[in-house]
Amino acid sequence: MKIGLMGGWNTDSGASLHSELIGRAWVEEGIKLTVFTFYKESFHGTQITGEDEEFVIRCFTTSRAEPQRLNPIPFLTEDYNVFVVEDLGMLPKDHLGKIFHRIKKKAITVNIIHDGKLTDDPSFYQFDWDAIVCFDERYRDFLKEAYDEERIHIIPYPCHEQKIIDKTSARRGLSLPQDKKILFTFGPASYYTLSLVEDIFSFKEFILLVVTKHQNSLTGFYPLQERYPIIIREEAPDINRLYEYLNSADGLIFNKPSARWVVVSSTVFQCLGSGCPIIAYASNFIETLKDEVLRYHNRDEFLNCLRIVIEGGDRYQQVRERGLAYVQRNSARNVARRYLQLFEDLLKRRRNA
């Protein structure tokens, strides 16, 4: 099996993270992978987060670029018999549509849906996919209104593999204090932590670690350093660096409000494997999770979550253990294998047609 994957790669978007988690797991399984991704001057996300591997080809713009561009040659000349698209809405669809019949001649085609509702863009529906993959039943419920239901498959969003580092060592390596409880927030989502700062520091036990290059977050947090123990690192960490920060922390704050459409939290699935308990607002980003996170609906419940972190008792350990159990079930390796089984079934069907 040889896979061509079109979508984000080495950026901080949720779609890119999904591509990287399953794509790198495929490579570990011995699969030949070719990644077709965005030009560095026109990518989906806010930051480039890593160096490209030798199998990565940057050959198109986002759908928001003016003008949109796509170099067709890599798609036509690279060797693959499975073609996978991630987050079609961000891709130059009409350019892809002009060569899609050529791609279909040599590969089965799979569309991994990241959109949380049906789009009114006609360009989205011009492709005859062999399979459409979504993350849970909420996606299937609206997709079946526009697609043949037998082509829709549910494969959950993957988690980063478990990676736990000794907290003392992690803090020493990051030059972080050893004698305080550390709450962590990072990336663009750190902006939503600003509204919680006063409540966080109603407890003297905490310091807040903010790791982001997001300008709105930085503008909000820097003035607060005069009043509160806040450490700011202007970084867009790659996954290894991110896990060093997660393993140094006592809790990760995820205060993102609900979206008006179906969503999952790539941040939560990216971070569960660290064993750092996630303190999450009860939005639709986490509605498919249960006791894997510390969930709050209001200020009182948030303050109670902070008390659980300070105490580090049975409830704290329970959330940590259930989060890691979820990771074991839905690890990138396990999810990637479910995709490989789907591809094998589609290839077999094609051979027997």
In short:
With 353 residues, this protein is an alpha/beta fold.
Give an account of the 3D structure.
With 353 residues, this protein is α/β, with parallel strands linked by helices. It has two domains: 2-158 and 331-352, 3-Layer(aba) Sandwich (Rossmann fold), CATH 3.40.50.2000; 167-329, Rossmann fold (3-Layer(aba) Sandwich), CATH 3.40.50.2000. Helix content is 37%, strand content 17%. The chain has twelve helices and 13 strands. The protein has helices at 14-28, 73-77, 93-106, 137-143, 167-174, 197-200, 215-224, 239-248, 266-271, 299-311, 314-329, 332-352, and strands at residues 2-6, 32-38, 56-60, 82-86, 108-112, 131-134, 152-154, 181-186, 206-211, 230-233, 251-254, 278-281, 294-296. A seven-stranded parallel β-sheet has the order 3-2-1-4-5-6-7. The chain has a six-stranded parallel β-sheet with strand order 10-9-8-11-12-13, sandwiched between helices. β8 (181-186), α6 (197-200) and β9 form a beta-alpha-beta unit. α1 (14-28) packs across α12 and α5 (167-174) crosses α8. This is Glycosyltransferase family 1 protein. It comes from candidate division WOR-3 bacterium.
